[in-house]
Design a protein that fits this description.
Number of strands of chain B: 4
CATH architecture of chain B: Orthogonal Bundle
Oligomer: heterodimer
Number of strands of chain A: 4
Helix content of chain A: over 70%
Largest interface: A-B, 42 and 42 residues
CATH topology of chain B: ABC transporter involved in vitamin B12 uptake, BtuC
Largest sheet of chain A: 2 strands, antiparallel
Low-confidence stretches of chain A: 382-387
Number of domains of chain A: 2
Largest sheet of chain B: 2 strands, antiparallel
Shape of chain B: globular
Radius of gyration of chain B: 19 Å
Mean pLDDT of chain B: 84
């Protein structure tokens, strides 16, 4: 086969995959009967194995690495069609927005845990910092977009209080620091009366140049505006994360993760890179938290428990540590599945903790394994990206 | 600051210190033999207190038992169940992952802790609310001068100290203890000397988890109630105590436990809102970690370059 033909075939395969995935996802979001939901899950699992048999994850990874524009078009267009299709469904739109927000937060974690190897078990606490900043500030007369940015900034600032211990500790000790912070944060919120105590705070609706986000947009569900905002936020954060990974910045971060001693022998300033990754990651998580709080309209300490931090980590592990692409399907699975299947809602923490244990024991690389960094174009060549 | 209750604060601090020391000793034992941190340790403790609660309720259903018999049986039940659980965890989750990156072990034990916590919350009837723990200890008090010591408090302190002392003696004087110390010092050489590595590791996990169950029961007896997420707090505090004392050192863990209880007591005296004492304790942990990243008495095998 000629190079061009191969290109075309792969492209069609990916387009087909993304279309089928979108159809399944939309069907899953809209359908309410449990029998049908089960059938869709079955189809999804079947489809995953067929796709895996044909080596699609590998191909997607390749296209995504070498032709980002093609990749974004193939992924973005079905998503737009899907949103237009279910523009009247409150629940479906709410789910899409939640997935996008969680994926954004997990991209921040990917930057910290996946690239730089910094353990952050306080993800939900930083979400909470963003959320509470927004809750406190929206009632002032500050433009709402700025408020969300400030939420991210606040998370970065609070995170920088942890920088000293995080830089000086490693492994278990670093984990201890962030776990202690997660517990501290929730306890603090619960006993602090100015932040609403256990009841939490109400948040005024989001306004953007006179456009009220809690009013229906163009005669459709009022969640539509949030979906668009969340997807845009996710896209921006995704592109930034991806650019960091691809560039020399990512190379430095990888070096810091893989071997600190060797990295510093090559003249890499470990502390500086760790600070960059930790702060930027927390900034992303804070942004996500701010938007999440806006969408919920009400936040309480129970939204930001240690178990929620572990859920964020589960998403990163399930998606494949260090692969920003894997984060999106993983957050879909972990956020939407329990909401849709009501009978597992109560058991979700239990199920996900067991799932993560199984993933770690049997498939530590997650759903989509992070490929090796390719320093030159490999398009059309039969080159395996595995170790 | 309020000094009128100073004696009560001291007694309270002693009880907390004993409980923390028992948890910290478990962490330090596991770290010694396998170089792993088992983050589910606190949840094993909590599960132990629930096991004791179930046993005690079951016994009171059966008929009238003297309270001391009830206590002994519940305690034995909790310790044996948790020792078994600890062995199972070590055998199926910790040992197979010895070659994997340390992050994986960390995550597995964290997730396991979450699983245990959630299992108790979901499967114990009405598990998300605090459960009253039966009062199995005599509640009279002794009055020494102006100080009032309740008997149950005294028994918890003495019992806990005794347990730690016995464990310490066992590690120092018995054959099992010798093997544990050998494995902790150098697993390879210990194997060459004919020590069954796997059996020693499992034994250590059983020992540590049994001690955690004891700490859980002590916690329940002291507060008269237990709740499913208490284990997470105790686990983090116990780990910090072990770190502060230097991981791998038994004496360090005990000192760390008491130091921590002391800090928390100061926090409780200092702030008018008692709930701030936990916030204070966690702030202190973070500050100690920033100051001495591997603990006050630093780790034996520091891998610094």
């Amino acid at each position: 086969m000629k190079k061009q033909d191969k290109y075309l075939v792969t492209y069609c395969e990916i387009l087909l995959t993304s279309t089928i995935t979108t159809i399944l996802v939309v069907a899953f979001l809209i359908v309410e009967k449990e029998m049908l939901l089960g059938a869709i899950i079955g189809l999804g699992i079947l489809g995953f194995f067929i796709a895996k048999g044909r080596g699609i994850p590998h191909k997607i990874d390749q296209v995504y690495r070498e032709h980002p524009c093609v990749f974004y078009l193939t992924i973005v267009s079905p998503v737009i069609i899907a949103i237009v299709f279910c523009r009247h469904e409150h629940f479906a739109l709410f789910m899409i927005a939640s997935v996008a927000i969680y994926a954004t937060a997990c991209l921040g974690l990917t930057l910290q845990l996946g690239y730089t190897g910094l353990t952050n078990f306080a993800g939900a606490a930083f979400l909470g910092v963003g959320g509470y900043t927004v809750a406190v500030l929206t009632n002032q007369s500050i433009p709402n977009v700025l408020v969300i940015l400030l939420g991210g900034l606040m998370a970065a600032i609070i995170g920088s209080l942890l920088i000293l211990p995080v830089l000086r500790t490693r492994g278990h000790y670093a984990a201890l620091v962030t776990i202690a912070f997660a517990l501290l944060f929730k306890t603090f919120l619960e006993i602090n009366d100015t932040l609403g105590g256990p009841q939490g705070l109400k948040i005024a609706s989001f306004k953007f140049f006179g456009l009220d986000f809690n009013e229906p947009l163009l005669g459709s569900s009022f969640y539509l505006s949030y979906v668009i905002a969340a997807l845009l936020l996710m896209l921006v954060v995704f592109i930034i994360t991806r650019l960091i990974e691809k560039s020399w910045l990512g190379l430095h971060l990888d070096a810091v993760r893989l071997d600190e001693t060797v990295a510093s022998c090559f003249g890499i300033n470990i502390a500086a890179w760790k600070i960059l990754a930790f702060t930027l990651g927390n900034f992303f998580i804070g942004l996500a938290g701010g938007l999440y709080a806006q969408m919920l309209g009400h936040i309480a300490p129970t939204n930001f428990t240690f178990a929620d931090s572990l859920i964020l980590i589960s998403i990163v592990i399930l998606g494949g540590i260090g692969n920003p692409l894997g984060v999106i399907p993983a957050s879909f699975l972990i956020i939407v599945l329990p909401e849709k299947l009501q009978f597992i809602q109560e058991y979700r923490f239990l199920l996900f903790s067991i799932l993560v244990i199984l993933v770690l024991v049997y498939r530590p690389e997650g759903l989509l394994k992070r490929g090796l960094r390719s320093f030159y174009r490999t398009w059309g060549r039969e080159r395996k990206l595995e170790n | 600051m309020d000094f009128s209750l100073l004696d009560q604060h001291i007694i309270n601090g002693l009880v907390l210190g004993v409980i923390y020391a028992m948890v910290a000793v478990g962490f330090t034992l596991f770290f010694g033999v396998l170089n792993v941190i088992k983050f589910s340790h606190g949840d094993v403790l909590m599960a132990g207190s629930f096991a004791a609660l179930i046993a005690s309720l079951f016994l009171s259903q059966l008929g009238e038992f003297p309270t001391w018999l009830n206590l002994c049986i519940s305690l034995l039940f909790a310790i044996s169940i948790m020792a078994t659980l600890g062995t199972l965890i070590a055998q199926h989750l910790v040992l197979p992952l010895r070659g994997a990156p340390p992050l994986n072990t960390l995550l597995i034990t964290l997730m396991l802790g979450l699983a245990i916590r959630e299992a108790v919350r979901l499967f114990y009837p009405n598990g998300s609310n605090p459960k009253p723990f039966p009062r199995l200890l005599p509640e009279n008090s002794w009055i020494i001068g102006t100080m009032e010591i309740r008997q149950d408090t005294a028994i918890i302190i003495v019992g806990g100290l005794l347990a730690i002392l016995i464990l310490n003696l066992a590690i120092r004087k018995t054959r099992l203890g010798l093997s544990i110390r050998a494995v902790a010092q150098d697993p390879e050489t210990a194997r060459l000397m004919g020590i069954n590595f796997k059996r020693i590791v499992l034994g250590t996990f059983a020992l540590g988890s049994g001690l955690a169950a004891l700490a859980g029961v002590a916690n329940g007896l002291y507060y008269h109630e237990i709740i499913f997420d208490r284990g997470l707090f105790l686990g983090v505090i116990g780990f910090s105590a072990a770190v502060v004392g230097g991981l791998g050192s038994l004496l360090g863990a005990i000192i760390g436990g008491f130091l921590f209880a002391f800090l928390q007591t100061i926090g409780a005296i200092w702030f008018s809102v008692p709930a701030y004492k936990d916030v204070f304790a966690f702030v202190v942990i973070i500050m100690i970690m920033a100051w001495r990243p591997t603990g006050l008495l630093s780790e034996i095998n520091s891998d610094r370059v």
